[in-house]
């Protein structure tokens, strides 16, 4: 598990870690996904954002947060004065999990086993980057980093601590904003998320 010394990657740097993750078969999600979508950003980043898993666009591009949720996330970061390029962006689960509906690939939620298995890679990334702050974007990231006691709706906006490592700021996943954008309260939800990103930036 992630708490154990990661002997397999003990001497690896971030690029070597990425190369090893490209051939990961630790769980079954590699079978249907196009490729591993590893984290991206400077190895000296002060903040690491952790999403859920790559989406359809990310799966093809091989990069995190380049689809619709990523574009909305970019705009929110910009409004909060956070430079995306200065942050490290990664996911709790590094392969796209989906169900086929005809030609479409519909996002499927990673299960607890998949999240726990992939937490091994997240732990290795965090061990190398050693950020000052981690931001958990949504329930999957929060579960991966802190376990089942976190409730995003209750705990969002607060700073929690794991047994080791830097504080973890809890917030929602930007894809949840996509679903409310056209609703009356949607813009308020976006503003609340931007305010949370400003809170993150004030810690840096
Ligand atoms: N949603 C995520 O959680 N991660 C991505 O990389 C893209 C969308």
UniProtKB/TrEMBL annotation:
The keyword Secreted does not apply. Pfam families: UDG. Residues 38-197 form the Uracil-DNA glycosylase-like domain. One of its GO terms (molecular function) is metal ion binding. Keywords: 4Fe-4S, DNA damage, DNA repair, Hydrolase, Iron, Iron-sulfur, Metal-binding. It comes from the Bacteria. The keyword 4Fe-4S applies. GO terms for biological process: DNA repair. SMART domains: UDG, UreE_C. Signal peptide: none annotated. Belongs to the uracil-DNA glycosylase (UDG) superfamily. Type 4 (UDGa) family. This is Type-4 uracil-DNA glycosylase. It comes from Rhizobium mesoamericanum STM3625.
């Amino acid at each position: 598990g992630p708490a154990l010394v990661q002997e397999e990657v003990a001497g690896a740097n971030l690029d070597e870690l990425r190369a090893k993750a490209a051939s990961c078969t630790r769980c079954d999600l590699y079978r249907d996904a196009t490729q591993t979508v590893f984290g991206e950003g400077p190895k000296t980043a002060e903040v690491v954002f952790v999403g859920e898993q790559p989406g359809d666009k990310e799966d093809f591009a091989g990069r995190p947060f380049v689809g619709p949720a990523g574009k909305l996330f970019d705009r929110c970061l910009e409004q909060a004065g956070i430079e995306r390029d200065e942050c490290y962006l990664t996911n709790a689960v590094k392969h796209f999990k989906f169900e086929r509906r005809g030609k479409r690939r519909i996002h499927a939620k990673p299960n607890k086993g998949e999240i726990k298995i992939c937490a091994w890679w997240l732990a290795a990334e965090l061990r190398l980057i050693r950020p000052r702050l981690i931001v958990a974007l949504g329930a999957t990231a929060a579960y991966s980093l802190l376990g089942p006691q976190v409730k995003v709706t209750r705990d969002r906006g607060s700073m929690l601590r794991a047994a080791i490592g830097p504080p973890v700021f809890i917030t929602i996943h930007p894809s949840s904003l996509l679903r409310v954008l056209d609703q009356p309260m949607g813009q308020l939800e976006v503003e609340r998320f931007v305010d949370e990103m400003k809170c993150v930036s004030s810690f840096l």
